[in-house]
Amino acid sequence: MSKRKLARLLQTPAVLLLLVWMLVPLSMTLYFSFIRYVLNNLRRPEWTTPALSNWRGFGNYEFVLDAKDFWFAVQNSLFIVGSILFLTVTLGVLIAILINRAFPGRGIVRVLLISPFFVMPAVNAVLWINMILDPVLGLQGIAIGGINDLITLLKDAPLVGWFFSLWPTLEPISFRATQTSAYAVIIMVTWQWTPFAVLIFMTSLQSEDQQQKEAAVLDGAGAWSQFRFLTLPHLGRPIAIVVMIQAIFHLSLYAEIEIVSRGNGNKNLPYLIGEFANNNIGAASATGIFAVILANIVAIFLLRMIGKTLMD
Amino acid sequence: MGRIVLENVTKKFGDLEVIPPLNLTIEDGEFVVFVGPSGCGKSTLLRLIAGLEEVTSGRILIDGEDVTNIPPSKRGLAMVFQTYALYPHMSVRKNIAFPLRMAGMNEAEQNTRIEAAATALNLTDYLDRKPGQLSGGQRQRVAIGRAIVRDPTAFLFDEPLSNLDAALRVGMRLEISEMHKKLKTTMIYVTHDQVEAMTMADKIVVLQSGRVEQVGSPLDLYREPRNAFVAGFIGSPKMNFIDGEKAGTLGAHTIGVRPEHVQICPKGEGDVWQGKVGVAEHLGSDTFIHVHGIDGCDPMTVRAGGEVKINHGDTVYLSAQMDQIHKFDSEGHRVS
Amino acid sequence: MAIVAETNRFSKTSRTVLAWLVGLLFFFPIFWMILTSFKTDAVAVKPEFLFSFTPTLDNYINMTENYDYWRFAANSVITSVFATIFTLVVGIPSAYAMAFNPSRRTKDVLMWMLSTKMLPAAAVLYPMTFLTKNFLGIFDTHFLLILVLSLINLPIVVWMLFTYFKEIPREIIEAGKMDGVSTWGEVREILIPLAWGGIASTALLCFIFCWNEAYWTVRLTTTEAATLSKLIEGNRAPEGLFFGRLSAVSAAAVGPIIVLGWFCQKQLVQGLTFGAVK
Q1: What pLDDT band is residue C1 in, cutting at 50, 70 and 90?
Q2: Cβ-based contacts of A299 with chain C (< 8 Å)
Q3: Average pLDDT in the B114-119 region?
Q4: Domain end (from B232, B261, B278)
Q5: What is the mean pLDDT of residues C90-101?
Q6: What's the mean pLDDT when you consider all of chain C?
Q7: Which of A78, A256, C127, C129 is most deeply packed, by most CB within 10 A?
Q8: CATH of the domain at B143
Q9: Is the pLDDT of residue C2 over 50?
Q10: In terms of domains, do C229 and C248 share one?
């Protein structure tokens, strides 16, 4: 057997498996998105089978585009992803620079810092929404209760009492309402993914040219100029990659939404698809196709960037 | 024995022809050096002989036997790589033993051979270390050891000294030459360094773009380069090429004269050129003077004695040994 | 950098303090979860017992009774271990071929593999449910989860192994060829020993990803093959009643993985950025 043939043979299982995995379900989704297909309908039982006679053309797409939920989900998906990206990248750069230089206990700090990334998403969500963000029983509730008690106490104090009596009583925020639960998701995912950004930026900072920095010091560059003109450009590529990888991961964010927001109206695209899939498969499929398109826009940029470094 | 013959060998990578049809004979026991600028195909040629690349067409014969379609390990050749290519997870002993083990040799015989090779290469104290714990020179020795123990019909060296520092390189150069004198096995050595080629070779093969430009002994190549490329490549500092009027009077398109064949002479005593000194490099034994302002050749390099008193900006008069002038036509071929 | 370092001795101390603060802040939620897991459910919600309480192991002892923890954990272990093995069995030959016998299409194949990773899972949710439930009858089985977990991790695994194999110098493989090693010998004597570290950390990372997966494991199981992700998701809102026991089961679900994660920080960068950041 020639080398070429052997090489092709060795790749076959992986390629074949992924080909089936990608093509079969996706083409089914594509097909379902063009037919009327629901799981339960007493008046029109013929719609409950995925038959070609239920052809609806772009009807499902029109239905989805007209649905208020859809636009809310798109908007929310983008809002959540955008906020997470902004927070993780900003925090990531700052923390990476902070711990890039040697200091006592750096190894331990690194370990502490990376830990959130390995927490399973379901635990992450349950932990934050209950034990930390809960307005009464969580740390938030306890902290705000404590502050309020302290203020009440200080109101009766002599001399400074008048000052504290001007303070309002603090209200804890419920993170289970439609809008605030999106904030909760942003907080917990930022907590989980900032370590990822830090790790990548640190790896990249390690490869920063130290001689170039020394040359900049001799040229009279201060700390800010070094950051602005050397470090930030050096981090440009890793930042782009962190943004794109996270965008792809977070566009399909599911467990956190499911746990934090179930039933309260907050949703993103994957969650909306899940809701539609309870009955209206046609709409779920059309929404799925939109999600694929959205992810592809990001993926094309990412793949192009990765492809450049692939073979060298 | 180790007579290697290449018959009309060609190599293409896709549509790119890197070796046009090439014929070459390497006699048994010869030390042959392939030399040329980077990308000239010298390494590819060596890998074709080794069997690491398949020839596109043509035949390779070793001692009369056609090995064109025989896998590398069955050709009886040993190779020393530029990066040494030692197995990092094996000790020096295991590295050297590896080809013997693969050949199914018994352990006693293996050990005798390893000990012999280790003694010859001064590696006895390092046999139990890993390659990572050795210096560059020692790694190079291990790589050579791994080649020697197989008792090959020919050794192939792929730029083996280019990763060593200058001082070590000179030492290893001598050792490899001595090894060849002792073993009398055919060696094929690839380098881009013409000094290595000149000092080590019995026969030099100068390559450019996959073509053999000239084959010959070092001094043949120095004395009678077949074309301007070989003339410029062999010899250090480089030969001076002069075109224009002066070349025309001698019936050539270009003439070449080596720095060591140009002299500084007093004005009016047979001087051919006049120019101003740019930089004079004093090496102690010699002085290389770069002279500017000469028609058709700027700067012209002159090799003078070590003690010569010449400074930047001086005007000098130069003459050449007329019997050492090489003449080339407009295509660079030698004209006699 | 010596010049800068000497002039800023104060800033060095404050940097150290700040760095430690950030590290502790990020770790705090995990610490809090572990701390709560040692409180009884009643104590866990009382502010006066925030840090001073009598620790109890009851929550861990009663994990089986409260949540049937070990059944879910066993499912997680089975699916993650076998998915990792299967992924490596399929991934190693493929990455080997691509790294040592690249053709003109190798790059495209790799890129295409990655692109399958970028397909949003939700888009094919219903077809997957339909196929596995009505058509193949493998819904809520270990087999299905192992298959799906393998498929979603295969691109990353192939990619990581490819970058490891590519770092092995070609010349070493060629030296082996000159020394007379067979194809199988090349794999056993040279490739595996040299790539061992890379293969191990790839396996580790793949295992972690399988363990933490929370879309398919939730949507494609009900009871039989349900993993820890499903268990935790099912107990999402205890309304304060069970903070202690929920913390214990959560800590038991993530603890081992966090420790494993510490060992493959470096590989994580390579694995998740597909070698684009070094």
Answers
A1: very low
A2: 115, 118
A3: 92
A4: B232
A5: 89
A6: 84
A7: A256
A8: 3.40.50.300
A9: no
A10: no
- Please report the pLDDT score of residue C130 as a whole number: 84
Residue-range definition of the domain harbouring residue C242? 1-67+237-254
CA dist B292 and B314 (Å) reads: 11
Residue C4 lies in a domain: yes
Instruction: Look over chain B and give the mean of its residue pLDDT values, rounded to a whole number.
Output: 90
For chain A, give percent helix, strand, coil, nearest 5: 75, 0, 25
Report if residue C178 sits inside a domain: yes
Look at residue C126 in the predicted model and tell me its pLDDT: 81
Distance in Å, alpha carbon of C227 to nearest chain B alpha carbon = 40
CA separation for the pair C166, C147 (Å, rounded): 27
Radius of gyration of chain C (CA): 24
**Residue C86 and residue C59 in one domain:** no
CATH of the domain at C132: 1.10.3720.10
Chain A segment 18-37 residues within 8 A of C by beta carbon are: 18, 21-22, 24-26, 28-29, 32
Please compute the mean of the pLDDT values over residues B298-323 and round it to a whole number: 88
Q: What are phi and psi of C127, to 5 degrees?
A: -55, -40
In order of their start, the domains of chain A are: 68-133+177-278 (1.10.3720.10), 141-174 (no CATH)
**Token match 């080794």: residue?**
B50
Contacts of B259 (CB under 8 A, 6+ apart): B237, B238, B239, B240, B288, B301, B302, B303
B204: three-class secondary structure by DSSP: strand
- Most C CBs within 10 Å, among A5, A115, A306, to test the C interface: A115
Which residues in chain A have Cβ-Cβ distances shorter than 8 Å to C33? 123, 127, 131
B183, B205, B232 - which closes a domain: B232
The parent domain of residue B260 ranges over: 240-335
Residues C147 and C200 in one domain: yes
CB contact at 8 A, C141 and C224: yes
Q: What is the pLDDT of residues A250-281, one digit of tens each?
A: 888 888 888 887 767 788 888 888 888 888 88
Do residue C166 and residue C93 come from a single domain? yes
Q: How many C-beta neighbours within 10 Å does residue B162 have?
A: 14
User: Tokens in use for C78?
Assistant: 């089975």
Does residue B152 have a cis peptide bond before it, meaning omega lies within 30 degrees of 0? no
Closest CB from A13, A22, A207 relative to C119? A22
Band of pLDDT at residue B249, cut at 50, 70 and 90: confident
Does C213 fall in a domain? yes
Mark whether C88 and C210 lie in a shared domain: yes
Judging contacts by C-beta atoms under 8 Å, the chain C residues touching residue A214 are: 1
In angstroms, the CA C176 to CA C182 distance is: 9
Question: Cα distance from A167 to chain C (closest Cα, Å)?
Answer: 23
- Rounded to whole angstroms, the Cα distance separating B145 from A309 reads 38
* Cβ-contact A129, A260 below 8 angstroms: yes
Measure in Å the smallest separation between the Cα of B50 and chain C Cα atoms.
8
What is the CATH number for B293? 2.40.50.140
Write out the residues of chain C at the interface with chain B, using a CB-CB cutoff of 8 A: 169, 171-172, 174-181, 185, 189-190, 193-194
Tell whether B151 and B207 lie within a shared domain. yes
User: Is any Cβ of chain C less than 8 angstroms from the Cβ of A172?
Assistant: no
- Does C127 or B63 have the greater pLDDT score? B63
Residue C261 in domain: no
- C1, C75, C118: best mutation site toward chain A, by most A Cβ within 10 Å? C118
Looking at the fold, whether B162 and B291 belong to one and the same domain comes out as: no
Amino acid identity at B78: A
Q: To the nearest whole angstrom, how far is the Cα of A186 from the nearest Cα of chain C?
A: 15
Q: Are residues B150 and B187 in the same domain?
A: yes
Considering only CB atoms, which chain B residues are within 8 Å of C169?
A: 83, 85
Q: Are residues C25 and C114 in the same domain?
A: no
Q: Is A129 on the interface with C (CB under 8 A)?
A: yes
Q: What is the pLDDT of residues C163-205, one digit of tens each?
A: 888 888 888 988 998 888 888 888 888 888 888 888 888 898 8
Between CA C242 and CA C234 the distance in angstroms is: 13
pLDDT at C6: 46
Any CB–CB contact under 8 A between A216 and chain C? no
Over residues A90-120, the pLDDT tens digits come to 999 999 988 888 888 888 998 899 899 999 9
